[in-house]
Amino acid sequence: IPLMKYADRIHILTLRGNLKQLNNIAKEKERVVEKNRLLFNAALFHLQAARRQLCTELENKKDLESKIALTLKESLIFTDVLMTTAPSLVCLRSWILNRRAVLESRFHYCSSLPVFCRKEEEAQKEYEEKRKEMLEDVQRNHGRAVQLLRKTMTRIHEKNAEEELKTQEHMERRMQAVLSLKNSITSNRVLLLQLRPEMKKFTFIKTFQSIESFQFSLKNFSLIFLIIFYYRAFGEQQKSRRIEIVARILQENVYFHKQKNSQSCTKAVKRDGKLQNSLLWRIKTWQYIEKTCKHSAAIPKEETEPKLLATRIVKKEIFKKKVGELQTGIVHKQVVSGRGCEGCPFYSKPNVIHFKDFDVGKIYKKKIVLTNASYRVNFCRLAGISEWLKDFISIHFDPPGQMSAGMSCEVGVTFKPMINETLEGEITFMAQTGSFSVPLKCTTKKCTLALDKELIDFGTHVVGERISRTVTLTNCGALGTRFKVQMSAGDRSISSTIAKSSPGRMVGSKVTEGEIGPFNSVKLQIIFIPAVPGDVQAEFVIMFDNSPCKPLCFSAIGVSIDVPVWVPNPNVDLKICMYDQLYQDCIVIQSRAKAALRLKFEVCKELSKHMELLPKTGYIQAQSSFNVQLKFLPRHSLPEDAGNYFDEETRVLEVPMTILIADKTKPVNFTVHAIVTTSDLEISPAEINFGYCTIYEAVQTNVTLTNKSILPQEFGFVGLPEFVEIQPNDGLGILLPLESLTLDIIFKANKAKEYNFELTCKSEINRQFKLSCKAVGVHPPLELSHSLVQFAATALNGVSTATLNVINSHVSVNHFTHAVPRIGNGEIARVGPTSFEFHVPEDCPVTITPSVGTVLPGKKSLIQVSFRPTLSDQLIREEAIRLGRAAVTRHVLLVCQFHRYLFDFFVLSLTKMNLTPGFSSSEAYKAAQAFLIRNFRGRFEKYIIPCFVASGDTDGKKSSEDLSCSPYNTLYLELHCPAVAPSVLVTSDNGKNTVNFGDVAIGHRRIKQITIQNISPEQLELGFSILNPSGPFLLVRPIGMLQPGENKTLIISFCPNENKWFFETLDIWTVKTNLTLSIIGCGVMPSIVCSVEEVLNMGYVIAKEKVTSTFKIQNTSTLNLRYSIQLDSLSSTRDKDQQRLPSFMTSSLQRTDFVGTQNYNGLSVFSVYPIEGEIVAGKSQDFIVTFGPDHESLYYSDRLKVVLFGKEIAHVIHLKGAARYHLMFVEGGIPLDVPIESLAVTLPISSQEAAKGGNADSPQIVTTLLTLKGDIKESYQIFFMAKVASACTPTKQGKEVTWKGR
To answer: Where are the coiled-coil regions (predicted)?
Structure first.
C-alpha cells in the first residue's frame, strides 16, 4: 500500500471538516424547520380557535336577531290588539263615568227622599246588568279584532309570496333573454367561421382577368360586404342590448334600495332570501357579460379588419375597467369565517424608513421586512415611490409571488443624498386586498439645544458672601454651534455677575461665549455676590450662531440681608406630642459676624411652665454655629395657660421664640410648632361581673378599648391570672388614632370559690388602666366527657352521630383530699344518685338519647348525639308559595291580562292552601322541597344545649320537675353543625330516606327498589356500610360509580326470622358527603284459627249425590295473609305415590296414605271453594267443602292443607265420607271387607243387581256380621241389641227391614 502524501491528508482533513460543517448546517436547518413547523402549528391552532369563536359569535348574533324579530312581531301584534280594543274601552269608560255621575245624583236625591230607595236599587241592578253586557261586548270585539288581525297577517303573507313568485319569473325571463343572446352570438360566430375560406380566396388581381370572373368576384364581394355590414349591425345591436341590460340592472338596484329603506324590520328579515337571490342573478348576468366580452376579444388577428377593430375596442374597455378598479380602489376582499380583513394587508418592520443626519454625497442603505398580515394567501408588488424622491431613492425588491399568512419578504432601500434638505414621502406597494404604503423620511443634521433649569434660586445670604450655581446647556443634535451668554439690559441690582464656561475661561462681567459640539453639554457657572440688602433678580439670554436655533433664557434670584445671626430652620416642628411626656430638639444658630456675639434666649410667659431653652444665655464665635437645647413638657393645664397660642379644636400649638443679640436692636425670631394630644385609653365597661361559672366551661364577655389619642398606641394586658384569657393576640396590640377595639375576656374558673380581681392594661408610655372583675366558681355534681362536639359536614337528610359520657365523680364529701361539688363557698352537694336532663330547642336538628337519666356515684352514662340537618317546614311552604306565584304569573296573566284581580285571587288562594294541615303531603310541597335541596348552598350553625342537673333519682319521680334543681349547676354542650348540599339524593318514594318494609311474614322475603341520583357536577364513586350479616336486611345490588345527573337503583331485601321490629342504617359514602338510609321492617308470625280442628266428616250420602259443609278460618295476625287450599288427591306427586305398594296390603299401623276411595269418573270426591285468596288482618274467610261420590263406599277420605304464602302449611283437615246406594243401610258390626279398596274395580252383588235393573220392590239381602257378647249372672237378665241406621231423608218413605239370624 503506497503511503499517503501530506497534501492528500490535509485535503482529506479539510473535506472532513467541510462535511462536519455541512452536517452541522443541516442539523441547524432541521431545527429551524422544526421550530417553524411548531410555530405554524401554533398559528394554525390559534386561527382555528379564532374561527370557532367567530362562528359561535355569529350563531349567537343570528339567534339574538331572530329573537329580536320575534319579540318585535309579538309587540306589533299586541299593539294592534290594543289599538283595536282601545275605542271600545274608551267608550266603556265614558259610559261608566256618565252612569256613575247619574247614579251619584240619584243617590243624593234618594238620601233626601227615602221613598225612592227601591228605584235606586233597581237602577243599581240595571247598571250592573248593562255593565256586564258592555264587558261581554268588549270581549266579543276583542275576539273579532284578533280574527281580523290574523286575516290581515295572512293576506300580507300571501302578497309577499306572490311578489317573490313574480320576481323569480321576471329573473327567469331575463335569463332566457340572455341565453337567447348567447345562442345568437354563437350561431353568428359559426357562420363567420364557415365563410372564412371563401374570404381568403378573394383577390382583386383575378377580378380583372375576365369579365365573367369579374362578375363572379363582384357577386362574392357583394356577399362579403353584406356579411360585414350584418356583422357590424349585429355588434351594434349586441352593444345596445348590453347597455340596456346594465341600465335595467342599475334601475333594479335603485328600486330595491328604495324598497329596502321603506320596508319595516320584520319585512326586511322575511325578504332577505329574496334579495340574496336577485343579487345572485345579477352577479351571474355580469359574469356572463364579462365572459362574452372576453370571448369576443379572443378572436385571432387574422380575421378581417372589423373584427380586429371590435377586438381592440373590447380590450380597451377591459383595460379601462381594470384601470378604473385600480384607481378607485376596487380590490378583492378577503373573507375568512365570515370575517373580512381590515387594515393594512402587510406589516412593515420598521414602520417608518428614516435616514437621519445624512451627509451629502454619501450612500445609505436600509432594509425593511414586509409580513403578510391578512388571513389568506396574498402577494405584493412595488407600485411606485413619491415623485420628488425618485432622484434620491432606489428600491431593490424582488416580488416573491404568493405569500402565505405570516410569511415575510425583504425590501432594500438605497438613499444617495445630493442636496442638504429634509425629504419626506412614501413607498407604495400593491397587494391583492389593496394598496399600502411605507412612510420614508430623510432628515438633515440639526442642532437641538436645551437647558436643565430656567430658574436659579440662590436663597438668603448675608451681604459680601460669594455664592456659585451651575446651569447645564445640552446639545442633543448632530450639529455643533457657538453660543453667547449675556445678561438682559436693565438688570443692575447685582453688584457683580460672572458667567463662567466649562473650559474655565473668564469672559467679561456680563458676556461670555463658547462652542458646544454635537451630542455634548456645557456647564455655565453663575456667581452671586450681594452688596446691598434686599431682593435681587437677573435675566440671562443665550444666543447661538446657528440661525435655526432660537435663543434660550433663564433667570436668577436671591435675597441679601445684613443680620449677623440667623436660624437655618426658623420653623421648628415637634410633630405630635402627648401630655406629660418630655420632648427635646436641638436648634442650630449661625453667625455671619466677624466677632463673637452674646446671645440671650427668651420664651413667652404663657408657656414658661411647659417649654424651656437651655442655656438661656450664650456666646457664639465669629462665623460659627451655636446649639440650643429645646425642652417641651406639655401638661394638662396647657390649654388654659397657652391662651391664643393654642387652638383647642385643632389642638395645634404655635409658640414664637426670641433670640436677643447684644448691642443689636433687631431680635432674631423663630417659631415652635406642635400638636398636643392625650395619651388616655378608655375601657368600657369599667367593671365586669362574670356571674356563676362552672369549672367545666368558660364565660366570655366583651370590653371595648378606645384610643383617645391621635397617635397610635401600643397596649398590653400584663400580669393576667391563670384563669383569665384575653383575645385576640393574647391582649396585646396597637390601636390606631381614635380607634376602638373589641376584646374578648374569657374567664374559666379552676375551682369553686368567689373571685374578685383586677386586670391591668399598660400603654407604651407605661400608663396603667385598671379593669375590675367579679365571678363565682361552681363545681357541679356531674360533668361531661366532651363539652364541644364538632360534627363532620353532613348532607341534608343525612345523619352524623357522636357519643359522650355523663360522669358522676362525686363519691366523698371530704374537701381536703379532692375538690367537692359546691356553688362558690356554699354547702357541699350530697353524695348519691344525680339526675340530668338535656333540653334541646324545638327547632334544633339535634337529637340526644337518652335526654333524661340518673347517674350513680362513680358511674357514667353513655349519651348519643345525632345531627340530622333538614329544611324547615316554614321555608318549604314559603318556597312553595313563591313557585306557585311564579307559575301563576307565567300562565294566568297571559289569559287574564285585562283582569288583574284574578291574579290576586289566585295568590290569595295559594296562601290559604299553604296554611291547610294536609299541604305538607301535596305535590307543590314536595316540588318545593326538591327544589330547595337541589339548590342548597350549605350552612353552619352553632347550638348550645343546656343540661340541667338535680340531686336524686328520676325512677321514683314522675318528671324531673319534681327534683330540686339549681340553675347554677347547669352544664352546657356546644355543638358545631355544618350542613352541606347532598351529592346523592333519593328520588324514589318522594325523596324519603326511610325504607319501610312494613309487616313481613317470618321466613318470607320482600324486595324494595330505591332510586338515587347524583346531583353534583362530578363523577362519584360510592361506598356502602356493612349491614348486619346475621340480620334480615340484605343489599342485593350495590352501585359502583355514578355519573353527573345519573339515576341508578339499589335493591334491598328483607327476610325476618323473628317476630319483632328490625331497624338498621345503610350509609352511602361519597368523597364529600354521606347519605344515610334508615331501613325498618317488622317480622310477623302468621297465625290463623280454624273452626274445624282435625277431622271434617261429611257422613253418609246417596251415591251420585252431593252434600256441602262449611268451615271458617280467621286471621289473628297483624298482616294480610295470602292462602291457598291444597288437597292430597290433587297433589302433583299423587301419581308418583301410587307407584308404591298398595295400602291395603300393609297393616293398619303402617298405613300413611290419607287419600281413600276416589270416584270412578275421574272427578275429585271432595272440592273446596275458594281455593286461594287473601285474608285481611283480623278478618275471617268462609270455605265450602263439597262431597260428591259416584259409587258406594265407606272409605272416602282426603286431606286438606291450608298453605300460607305458598310455603307454610298452617292447618290440616282430614276429610271423610261414606256413600250408599240405598236409603236404608246397616251401620256397625264387624266389617267383612278391607278399609282400602283394591286396584280392581269390583261391584258388590247387590250393586250389580241394582245396576242390571232388578225389581226395586223385591227384597234385598244385606249380609252383616253381628257378634253378640254378654255375661250371664244369677240375678240379671241380659238383652242383646243391634242398631239399624237409615240413610233415607225425611222426604222419602222408609222400608221394612227383616232380620234373619244363623
So the answer is: none
Does pLDDT of 441 surpass 70? yes
Neighbours of 1281 (CB within 10 A): 5
Which residues lie below 8 Å from residue 1296, measured CB to CB, with a gap of 6+? Answer: none
What's the half-sphere exposure (Cβ side, CA atoms, 13 Å) at 183? 6
CA-closest candidate to residue 1199, choices 1260, 1125, 1148, 1136: 1125
| Whether 1175 contacts 1123, CB under 8 Å | yes
Which residues partner with 554 through β-bridges? 540
The band of 192, judged by pLDDT with boundaries at 50, 70 and 90, is low
DSSP 3-state of 397: coil
Q: CB under 8 Å to 440, separation ≥6 — which residues?
A: 352, 353, 354, 385, 386, 389, 393, 413, 423, 424, 425, 426, 427
Q: C-alpha angle with apex 266: 264 to 272, nearest 5 degrees?
A: 100
In contact, 447 and 477? CB cutoff 8 Å: yes
Q: What is the Cα gyration radius of the chain?
A: 62
What pLDDT was estimated at residue 494? 37
* Distance from the Cα of residue 527 to its chain's centroid: 75
Helix, strand, coil percent content, the chain, rounded in steps of 5 = 30, 35, 35
Q: Which residues contact 896 (CB under 8 A, 6 or more apart)?
A: 902, 903
What is the pLDDT at residue 430?
85
Phi and psi based region of residue 464 (left: phi greater than 0; alpha: psi -120 to 50; beta: remaining): left
To the nearest 10°, the Cα dihedral for 805, 811, 817, 818? 30
What torsion, rounded to 10 degrees, do the Cα atoms 104, 109, 112, 114 define?
-90
Instruction: Write the secondary structure of 855-880 as one string of H (helix), E (strand) and C (coil).
Output: ECCCCEEEEEEEECCCCCHHHHHHHH
Helices (H), ranges, 915-1014:
923-934
For the stretch 1036-1043, contacts whose Cβ atoms lie closer than 8 Å and that sit 24 or more positions apart, written own/partner, are 1036/1007, 1039/1012, 1042/984, 1042/1012, 1042/1013, 1042/1014, 1043/1014, 1043/1019
Sign of the Cα pseudo-torsion (1236, 1239, 1240, 1241, in order): positive
Q: What is the value of pTM for the model shown?
A: 0.43
Report the residue count for the chain. 1302
Greater pLDDT, 97 or 1250: 97
3-state secondary structure string across 78-137: HHHHHHHHHHHHHHHHHHHHHHHHHHHHHHHHHHHCHHHHHHHHHHHHHHHHHHHHHHHH
First vs last C-alpha separation in the chain: 158
Average model confidence (pLDDT) across the chain: 76
Higher-confidence residue of 420 and 304: namely: 420
954 has a pLDDT exceeding 80: no
pLDDT band, very low/low/confident/very high, at 1241 (cuts 50, 70, 90): very low
| Rounded (10°) angle between helices 272-297 and 117-201 | 10
Per residue, the 3-state secondary structure of 1190-1239, as one string, reads CCCEEEEEEEEEEEECCCEEEEEEEEEEEEECCCECCCCCECCCCCCCCC
Instruction: Give the cell for residue 591.
Output: 453667625
Tell me phi and psi for residue 562, to 5 degrees.
-115, 5
Provide the 3-class DSSP secondary structure of residue 186. helix
Q: What is the spatial distance between Cα 948 and Cα 941, in angstroms, rounded to a whole number?
A: 23
How far from 763 is each of 706, 770, 896, CA to CA, in Å?
Answer: 12, 12, 74
What pLDDT is recorded for position 758? Answer: 93
Across 339-476, the runs of DSSP E, i.e. the strands, are 339-340, 346-349, 353-356, 364-372, 380-385, 393-396, 408-415, 423-431, 434-443, 449-451, 455-462, 467-475
Across 106-118, average pLDDT: 50
Q: 1010 vs 403, 932, 987, 995, 1038, CA distance in Å? A: 67, 21, 8, 8, 11
Name the residue with cell 339548590: 935
pLDDT tens per residue across span 329-347: 444 555 554 455 566 788 8
DSSP SS3 for 10: helix
CB proximity list for 138: less than 8 A, separation 6 or greater: 85, 88, 89, 92
Amino acid identity for residue 262 in this structure:
S
